[in-house]
Write a structure and sequence with these properties.
The structure is a homodimer. By secondary structure, chain A is α+β, with helices and mostly antiparallel strands. Chain A folds into two domains: 4-75 and 193-200, Glutaredoxin, CATH 3.40.30.10; 82-190, Glutathione S-transferase Yfyf (Class Pi), Chain A, domain 2, CATH 1.20.1050.10. Chain A has eight helices and four strands; from the N terminus they run βαβαββαααααα. Chain A has helices at 15-24, 39-42, 64-74, 82-106, 113-142, 154-170, 179-190, 192-200; strands at residues 4-9, 29-34, 53-56, 59-62. In chain A, strands 2-1-3-4 form a four-stranded mixed sheet, covered by helices on one side. In chain A, β3 (53-56) and β4 (59-62) form a beta hairpin. In chain A, α4 packs parallel to α6. Chain A is globular. In chain A, 41% of the residues are buried. The A-B interface holds A 47-49, 59, 61-63, 65-67, 69-70, 73-74, 82-83, 85-86, 89-90, 92-94, 97, 130-131, 134 and B 47-49, 59, 61-63, 65-67, 69-70, 73-74, 82-83, 85-86, 89-90, 92-94, 97, 130-131, 134. Bound molecules: glutathione (2 copies). One glutathione (GSH) is lined by residues 13-14, 43, 50-52, 63-64 of chain A.
Chain lengths: 206, 206
């Protein structure tokens, strides 16, 4: 039997879409959640000195989106054709762009507080609505209850934990006003395997 | 006949892998190179207020990597199987991570000069060799004269212009010491369609 071992910190962020995908795929994976204090020792053993890494038997996979796309292909969660696959990739990249914009403010420990407050306000009033409206329009167009394709896809399993992570960073529910994105979120959270994983995970959306 | 129109600034950066791919695919594309002075007018007409965008008939595609992967699929430049596709995606992401690290320093207009100099030195002595060694090892392993797969792929057409762009930002030839990456670069530049495009392009590696 193929052995899966995911190594990441004990929080959502980049590890969680992989955990969602592995849970959905029904594979029994080792969820290796490392502590900050152990990181200096583990860091140099990883290919880019970063996590997540996913070991599949003797292969070490890294880079979150490539891992997610690979698992998506494995578990039949790709689009119906090349153009639908493009649309999934496009959404995943747009979510990632937004996530990085939020991280730059949320994890900024060196700028003065008034600068950070200003940046936070800009995120809440401008950047986040702009990106989420883009995604909402795509979800409206798909009309499937899923993000960008005619059926459930790996992009949906990427989207939901990233929303959780961004909610955590922004301390608010970002989807409040986006009916179609909310629907995608709910549809994913309704999936039996995801529900089971979420019920027993050690971190709740952070 | 399908109409392709690429809109980007008149430089290499994110536009160039798309230009390489379209040139390789042998499609006649409109290479719409916009001037900075016209950007404020064009910006709000694009989906994320950014370029590149690629119009294919009536569809507007955006997000560089998703566009490149889509064109790669169209022009039969994908990997031999899902795992090879993962390896291509992985390299493309790693190149992108490095590119963004370099951009943060190269386009930093607000930090004091000594801070920028320090960051530049760190890039040259630490970050860039670390990332390029990672990619070099992958190229050694592939053994094909191409980046990560047993045959030529879209990741090679992504890699070469990104190296050009990073060379431009760092004002040096980053591949000097990486025999296998240099080989990939040369192999791509030898392709007839790429050679023809490069010979006539208005910008030379910047
Ligand atoms: N491009 C990588 C980024 C990975 C990354 O940023 N990992 C962070 C945690 S989210 C990390 O390992 N930080 C610890 C460190 O760099 O020492 C991916 O998409 O997987
Ligand atoms: N995630 C996007 C990023 C695109 C991007 O950063 N575009 C820059 C040029 S390289 C841009 O449009 N800058 C002008 C602006 O934002 O006003 C992609 O990969 O295509």
């Amino acid at each position: 039997m193929t052995k899966y071992k995911l190594t990441y910190f004990n929080f959502v962020a980049l590890g969680e879409p992989i955990r969602f995908l592995l849970s959905y795929g029904g594979v029994d994976f080792e969820d290796n959640r490392i502590e900050w204090k152990d990181w200096p020792e583990i860091k140099p053993t990883t290919p880019l000195h970063q996590v997540p890494i996913l070991q599949i038997d003797n292969e070490v996979l890294y880079q979150t989106i490539p891992i997610c796309r690979y698992l998506g292909a494995k578990f039949n969660l790709t689009g119906a054709d090349d153009f639908e696959n493009y649309k999934l990739d496009n959404c995943v990249q747009t979510i990632t762009d937004l996530r990085m914009k939020i991280e730059m403010v949320a994890w900024d420990k060196s700028s003065p507080q008034n600068f950070i407050d200003e940046k936070r306000a800009e995120l809440l009033n401008k950047t986040i609505p702009f990106y989420l409206e883009n995604l909402e329009k795509i979800a409206v167009k798909s009309g499937s209850g899923y993000l960008a394709s005619s059926k459930f896809s790996w992009a949906d399993l990427y989207f939901v934990p990233m929303i959780e992570y961004m909610n955590f960073m922004m301390k608010t529910n970002l989807l409040e006003e986006y009916e179609n994105l909310k629907k995608v979120y709910e549809n994913v959270m309704k999936i039996e395997s995801i529900k089971n994983y979420v019920a027993k995970r050690p971190t709740q959306g952070n």
